[in-house]
Each structure stands twice: as C-alpha cells, then as structure tokens.
Amino acid sequence: MISRMRILDGTLLALEAEGMRPTAARAAGWRRAVAGCGIDSLETLLPPAGAGDSPDRASPVAESSSPPGNAASRRSAAPERPPSLSELIARVLPTTVVPSVSALANLASGAFPQSGWHCIYGLGDALFADRKTLARSIDSLSEGREALLAPCFTNERGCATALAVEWLLGGEDRAALVSFAGCGGLAALEEVLAALLVHGGLPAADLRGLPELTDRYRRMGGGPIPPAKAVIGEAIFSVESGIHVDGLWKSPDLYELFPPEIVGRERRIIMGKHSGKRAVLVKCGALGLPVTADLAERVLQKVKEESARRKTSLCDTDFIALYSTCRAGKDEKEEGGRAVL
Amino acid sequence: MRFCKIVDTTLRDGEQAPGHAFSLDDKVFLASLLDGAGVYQIEAGVPAMGRDEQDAVCAVKDACKTAVVSTWNRLTEEDVRASVACHPDIIHLCLPVSERHITRKLRTTQAALLRQFSRVAEYAAGRGYRVTAGFEDASRAEVPFLLQAAETAKRHGIERIRLSDTLGMLRPSSAALLVRTAREVGLPVEMHAHNDLGMALANSAIAVLAGAGFIDTTLLGIGERAGNCGLGAFVAACREYTAISPLQARKAERLALPLLSRCRQRKFFT
User: Fold this and answer.
1) Can you give the CATH number for the domain in which B72 is found?
2) Nearest residue on chain B to A258, judged by CA atoms?
3) Residue B93 CB burial class (10 angstroms; 0-12, 13-18, ≥19)
4) B151 in a domain, yes or no?
5) Is A239's CB within 8 Å of B18's CB?
6) Rounded to an integer, what distance in angstroms lies between the CA atom of residue A235 and that of residue B154?
7) Which of A74, A103, A107, A274 has the maximal Cβ count within 10 Å?
8) Å from B119 to nearest chain A CA?
C-alpha cells in the first residue's frame, strides 16, 4: 500500500521566487487550507527566513515538522537578485539540480546524502528518456544510502504533473514536491491530487476545499487561473454539446471523470450552437420554465440560430428571452394572436 | 525513430467547448492557419449538424492546400450521407467502446454495435472514401472488446483507429499500455487526449513513444472541459517527433488567439 506517500507543497516558495511573499497571516491560512485536504502526508513548505526582503516577518520554518530538516541557512548579505525557486528549495531541504536526464550521468555516484530528505530539481524530460536507464541512474546514485528522494519535476516539456504522478504511484514510500496551479513551473498540486484520487493513490483525500485554495492563491498574488485549467478552472464543468449533455443526463460518469462536487463545484449547462434537445429540456427544468417537446424543438432551433449569429454561446438571460419569444409565438398561433409574456 | 503526424480537431472537438461557435469564415481562417502550419489532417466538423456546417466543411476543404480534411460522424448511414455531401478526404466514424457508453448511452449491446459498425463502415468505404474509426472512451474499454472492434475495423478496410481518452483519465503508463494493446491488431493508431488531469501532453508524447503515428491536437488546447492536447505546446515539447516547427505552430496560435479568446467570456462560467 502506498500509505506513506508524501506530497510537499512548494506553492509559497514558488510565489516567493516570483517576488510575491505572502504575509504571515496569509501563508498560515494557506497552510491550514492545504492541511484541510485531509491528506496527512501533504505538507506545505515555508519560505526560509531571510530569503525575501521583509526581515521583520519571522518565517516559522523551524516549527514545521519533518521532512525539510534544518537546511534553512540564513544568508548574511541580502542577495542581489531574488533567489530562484531551486535556490529557495535548496534552503529548506538538500537539493541537487538536474536539468535533464542526461545530466544525471554526470553526477558522481553517491551524490545523494547519506540519509534524510533529498530533492532532485529538474528532470523535466524524464518522460522522453529510456526508463530503464533512468531507473538505473537513480539506483546507482542512491546506492547504499537511506536518503528519501523527493523529486521536484519541472514543466518545461509540459509533463511535470504526469511525471510526479507516475513517480508517486511507481513505488512505495515515495514523495514529490509540487506547487498549486503549477506555479513556478512545477507539477500542479491540484492535478496530482485529482490524479491520485482517480488512480486510487489517495483514498482519504477531500478536495472540496480546492475552490477556497484557488481563492487564497489569487489573493496571495498567484497568476490568473485560465478558465479551462484542469481540476480548478471555472469553465471545466460547463457543457454545451448535445451529445455530452445527453450523456451526462443519462449517467454523469459517461463524460465526467469525477462529479464536480468532489472538488467543491457544480455542473452547468451552457446553451449554444452545439446544444441538443435534451439540453433545452434540462435547462428549462432548472430555470422553472414549463416546456413541451414541440416547444423545446423550436427553442433549440432559435438557440442554434442565435448563437451562430452571435458567434458564441448564450447566457441564461439570453436563453430565457429566446424561450419567451418562442412561447409567445406559439401562443399567438394557438390563441389567435394574443401574446403571452 | 518514432514520428507522428498531427490531426487537428480545433474545428470539431475544439468548437464543442462551451463559448465557441465558429462561422464559416472563422473555420476557413483557422483551417488556413493549420494548413499553413503543416498539420497533416484537419477534422473540419460534423456535417450531420446541418446545412451551415456542411457549407463550412466544403469551404475548409477548398481552403486547404496540403492538409487532408476529415468529417466526424456518429455511427449511422444518415451521418455518413451528410458527410458525403461535403466530399471530404476522410470520413471518420465514432463509436464508443466502453461497456458503460455502449449500454448506458447508446443503450445497445457490444454485438449489435459491431454489426452497426460493419454496416456503416461498408457504406462509407463503398462510396470510395478513406475511412477512419474513433474509439470513444477507449481508456475504459475492456481489452477483448477493444481488440474485437479493431479487428472489425481492419476487416472493413478502415485505415486507422483513434483511441480517445474521452474523460482525460489516462496517465502515461496506462496511455502507453493502451496504444501498445491497440497496435497488436496492426492498424495505425491515433491518440486523442483530454487534459482533465493536466496530462494530455504527456499522454500524447508517451503515445508517440509507444508507437502511435498520429496525435490529435487543438489550437491553444481548446476543447471540452479542461481541453485537448494543445498544438503549440505539443510540438514544442515533442519537436523531434513531428514535422511541424514549434515556430510555425506558435505563429498559428498567436494569430488564432483573438478569435479563440473572444468566446472565453466569463459570463458563461460563473
């Protein structure tokens, strides 16, 4: 069982590297919120004291329980440029920067420490490397040592999340260093957690707090989250296409990897060019609009025409207006021209 | 040396993302960008949707200098007839292969689905078209049925099978396994990845390493939910495996950005 899998959250370090050191209160709030995911083995790393430019703020790194150890070394002189993410990580746990798999070969055998936690930062191209060679190199470097590897895969080839997930699920007692929304070019915390949930790695995880984490991340100065961002984007539970709406209506797991509620969200049906009749029926139901099959058919035609004309989808207000037009038109026919609002 | 061709589905799966509704001119514009960037195939749309869509597909076909144009079809003769009206280069037939999609969505059986598949494939091939098949929800298919469907495809002269990770649930090890399994039948394999777990690019890359000769992309990764594998990002990460230069792909995405971001207005999602 993979019960001793550990995930190190480097979000605060990544923000710091981008020149955004959150206030102590926000950092503490972040840490609490991350702890609320119900995963014992998920821990937020705090920026080392003195790393940033606000010496008045005591960073409680010392209180942090293992794994980081005591590598947080105070620099006497303020650095000329802000420290990079790998430098910041190196101050909270021993770190070897390995930009690519080929650079692994250049490391002396036994390059890893004898014991304790050890971060390998980089290896963004590991997916493209021959797996056996990769495994052999890591084995030879860690031979005879008890150091616990906590790789921090970088995302320059877009594979950081996948590498972290494969690594964590690939053996026992594994650890990885990640960051929220992939901040700083690392594996994305929320994607790794969702993937572990889907692939059975973290049965106890509670991801309903992800919207709160997203909010906190924004308030700490984290970059904008694209609407289609996996797991946390605001558009990912919106569906328009007829075939998907119909499928979701028949059985949500046909088109949803997990119910939106699992990550603290809800599903939305968007009306547009690709809508089907089912979507009209479901939408009318949700908005409390009475509808017959015949009316639904005409509303659907209108929805398609209007969305093609506007070259985009329709919001609920637009939809209600179209519905009213169609209904009025019908009533006109049936009731001799008397329009009904 | 592994190598893959790009099948771009911005105009079909990309447009299915809420907020997008491309006009004929939009489709022609995006198709020209893709054609200019050097993608092998453009999935231009779903002719069964109606006359406007058929006109758009025809216009896309006229606009493409090198890319081949395909149309997406459900597994019915009616859909294929609508496609034939557009004279595409390739007719793509989509069929779900997971038990739950077959029984709960189509409300049919595996055997009945394969009979229908044979019939419609014969129908499309009989009209002289190149035919490809898309296995929807392939990630959750039972392997024996997946192989049976692939064998059926092969028997009917279908030239390639697309493995759709419809829900974006794969991770690289399972994606590689799926591609290797499907390749046993001997047909070229195409990977269609979704980004629900942030792994569309990685799954596509590993698919190439596992022998998939075709990778599905969209401009800027637009698509249902968290989107598809992004053309620019994929080509940049896998430059040694494609004929498209990252620069060309980036340029196409830059030029497409105003059109594609127009539809990403907040009001639909909040």
Assistant:
1) 3.20.20.70
2) B167
3) buried
4) yes
5) yes
6) 39
7) A274
8) 22
Two tokens, residue A181: 């929304």
Which ranges constitute the DSSP H helices of chain A?
A: 11-17, 24-35, 85-92, 101-104, 131-142, 160-169, 189-198, 210-219, 242-250, 277-287, 293-310, 316-334
Q: Is the Cβ pair B264, A227 closer than 8 Å?
A: yes
**Structural domain range at position B213:** 5-264
Q: Which of residues 73-92 of B touch A (CB under 8 A)?
A: 74
| Residue A235: closest C-alpha in chain B | B269
Q: CA nearest A127: which of A149, A155, A150?
A: A155
At residue B246, the 3 state secondary structure works out as: helix
Rounded-to-integer distance, Cα B144 and Cα A322, Å: 48
What is the SS3 string spanning A166-193?
A: HHHHCCCCCEEEEEHHHCCCECEHHHHH
Does a structural domain hold residue B269? no
ipTM value, please give it: 0.95
Architecture in CATH for domain A6-219 = Alpha-Beta Barrel (3.20)
DSSP state for residue A245 in the 8-state scheme:
H
Distance CA A168, CA A173 (A): 8
In one letter, which amino acid is B141? Answer: A
Q: Which amino acid is at A164?
A: A
**Which of A125, A159, A168, A231 to probe the B interface (max B CBs under 10 A)?**
A159
Residues 223-242 of B with CB under 8 A from A: 223-227, 233-234, 236-237
Which of B169, B139, B172, B133 has its CA nearest to residue B151? B133
Backbone dihedral angles phi then psi of residue A338, each to the nearest 5 degrees: -85, 115
Looking up tokens 């997971």, which residue turns up?
Answer: B98
Q: Is position B270 within any domain?
A: no
Domains of chain A, by residue range, sit at 6-219, 238-334
Residue by residue, pLDDT tens for chain A (341 residues) are 445 788 999 999 999 999 998 999 999 999 999 988 877 778 888 888 765 444 444 344 433 444 444 444 444 455 567 899 999 999 999 999 999 888 887 887 667 777 788 899 999 999 998 877 777 777 777 777 777 889 999 999 999 999 999 999 988 888 999 999 999 999 999 999 999 999 987 777 889 999 999 999 999 999 899 999 999 999 999 888 888 888 888 888 888 999 999 999 998 888 888 899 899 998 999 899 999 999 999 999 999 999 888 888 888 899 999 999 999 876 555 444 343 33
Q: Are B225 and B23 in contact (CB under 8 A)?
A: no
